[in-house]
Each structure stands twice: as C-alpha cells, then as structure tokens.
TrEMBL record:
InterPro entries: FldB/FldC_alpha/beta (IPR010327). Its cofactor is [4Fe-4S] cluster. This is 2-hydroxyglutaryl-CoA dehydratase, D-component. Keywords: Iron, Iron-sulfur, Metal-binding. The keyword Manganese does not apply. One of its GO terms (molecular function) is iron-sulfur cluster binding. It comes from Clostridium tepidiprofundi DSM 19306.
Length: 330
C-alpha cells in the first residue's frame, strides 16, 4: 500500500478506501527510541526553539522516514500546522488538505468530507464500507476502556496506548485487530486492582508517557484519557454516516462542545481530579482558564516541552496534588 502521513486524526476511512497506508507521524515521533533526533532534524532545518516539540517531531519523522505524501489539517487542530505544511511543500512533499470547520455545523462538515472524498477519487459507498469495518475494531477499544474504569484491570498507560493507536490503526487494520483481541483476552484474566484515586487526563496526549506509572505510585490511576478516547471514536456506532461521526468528534471544535462530554465522563467515571496536560508554546494552554471555570473538579495543569520523562518539579507538583485529593477524599 502507498504510505501517507497524518498530522493528526482525519477521516482515515477515505484514505483506506483509496488504498493508502495511513501513518500518524505523532505516533512515529513519540514511540521512537531516539525521538529527540526528529526534533534535531527540524531545528537544523530552521525551526525555532520556541516552537512546539510536537510540530518539530512531526516534521522530523516525515523527513527521516521519507514520507512523500501528507494529509495536513488546516483548520481545527494546531495553529502551527499551516506553517508546517508550507515547509513540507518547500521540501517537495505532496499535501492533501483537510479541515474541521470552526462553525461545527453538520452541513459544513459534510462539505469538507465530500471534498476529501473527491480529492482521493473514491465513492461515498466505498468509504462507508470501510467505516463499518473500522467501527467493529473500535468496539475492542471501547472494551479496553470499560475494563479500565469499570473492571479496574487496565493501567492508565495501556488505556492511553490502545486508544491513541486508533488514529492510524498502527498502519495495518487486520494486524491491529488481532492485537486488540489478544490484549483483551489477556486482560480479562487479570485480577482487579483498585486505587483510591480515580483521575482523568485531558488535553493533548503527553510527551511524558511515564506520568501514568508515576501517579500509580500514589494509589491513583488515570481511568479517563480524553483526547485519546476521542481518537478512538467511542460514539461512532451511533452515527448514521461518516458525516455524523466526524461531527460528534470533540477534539477539533469549540470548547463548550468538548466540556459537555467532559462533564459526562467525570460523572460516569466518578473522577476525583483531573490532570490537564498542555504543550509548551501551544495556544491550547489558555484553555486551562476556561476548563477550571467550567468544571467543578480539582484540576492540575502541567506543561510538557521536549522531555519524554517527567522532570523533578512536575513530579513534586503531581505528588502535592494527589496528596490534596487523598485528603479531600478521606
């Protein structure tokens, strides 16, 4: 299959219908044993120190892995993506644009997806056939999520990993389906392990993935990964078509739509507190002001940059936050 890079989650159903192998460059970047080399590639090519590490990582992953085609999200994701796309064009990379319209109107979303379908010269019927196939696999992700917050058999990191991977199905739909089936079978054999504190993790997926194991040292577990769960489209089975499915996707639209889903999950999962992760130099950091005003739950905002491990200061802040939550609970 032909490879095509993604800057974030897009209607992958269209790409698969067109015979492409989608590759989420975020996942390539952050799972690399030498992830910093991708940042170095970007900075050597002129990207400023003061730009988000994710943008630089995406660029480096694309260049280093010789990706020649990219789907760039021009609206509804990172404000720096437009500049990134211009640099990709300079490097001779073919760009296929897609937008999540700010209006968040169903008719506008339908227009954008139809443009995307026409761009790849596939039919609506072909796309819907792929969507139904993928949604069967997304049900396995929902099962892992239930085994996390209901059965207490899944770690916060596993919950993160198997949901965020659905942005590109690890590049192979059939293999990933088999992996999820094996994982679920193994998880169901585990004994439940409850923690005193139930946490939510909201904001972009973290550079510092060791945060999941770290909080578990303090009798706490992250049982809700907001954006990762959205990447897995947990409500897709209720959508009548691809237009409804991407209308109901909270990540790229206005914050009030996102907050409504957050409130539902805080209640359903009986969360004690929330960790709000933001990335250095990202405009989304300002959303912390709104979230703290609108959500009636303790929230700790932590910021990541280039490191893929928690620094000492952030560990101290996490420990203090968890101590406070334990005091409130007891």
């Amino acid at each position: 299959m032909k490879k095509i890079g993604l800057t974030t989650t897009v209607p992958i159903e269209v790409l698969l219908a067109a015979g492409y192998e989608p590759i989420d460059l975020n996942n390539v970047f952050i799972t690399s044993e030498d992830y910093s080399k991708y940042i170095d590639i970007a900075e050597k090519d002129g990207f400023p120190k003061s730009m988000c590490a994710w943008i630089k990582g995406i660029y480096g992953a694309c260049i280093d892995n010789d990706i020649k085609k990219i789907v760039g999200v021009m609206e509804g994701d990172c404000s720096n993506t437009k500049a990134l796309i211009e640099v990709f064009k300079l490097r001779g990379i073919n760009i296929y644009p897609f937008s999540f319209p700010h209006s968040h109107k169903k008719e506008d979303i339908e227009i954008e997806i139809k443009k995307f379908i026409n761009l790849f010269n596939v039919s609506y019927e072909e796309v819907e056939k792929v969507r139904l196939r993928l949604n069967k696999i997304r049900e396995f992700s929902k099962e892992i999520d239930r085994l996390t917050y209901i059965d207490n058999k899944v770690s916060g990191f596993e919950n993160h990993l198997y949901q965020v991977s659905l942005s590109d199905f690890n590049g192979n739909v059939d293999e990933f389906e088999g992996e999820l089936k094996r994982v679920i079978s193994d998880i169901k054999k585990r004994e439940p392990k409850s923690m005193k504190l139930r946490l939510g993790f909201i904001g972009v997926p973290p550079m510092t993935s060791d945060i999941y194991d770290y909080v578990e040292k303090f009798d706490a577990r992250i049982v809700y990964n907001e954006v990762q769960r959205e990447f897995a489209f947990p409500r897709a089975s209720k959508a009548l078509n691809i237009y409804e499915q991407y209308y109901d996707y909270t990540y790229p639209y206005d914050i009030e739509f996102r907050i409504a889903e957050l409130k539902r999950q805080i209640s359903e999962r009986k969360l004690d507190g929330i960790i709000h992760y933001t990335q250095a130099f990202c405009y989304r950091a300002a959303e912390d002001i709104i979230l703290k005003a609108k959500l009636d739950i303790p929230i700790l905002n932590i910021e990541g940059d280039k490191l893929n491990k928690l620094d000492a200061r952030t560990k101290l802040r996490l420990e203090a936050f968890l101590d406070m939550l334990l005091d409130l609970k007891e």
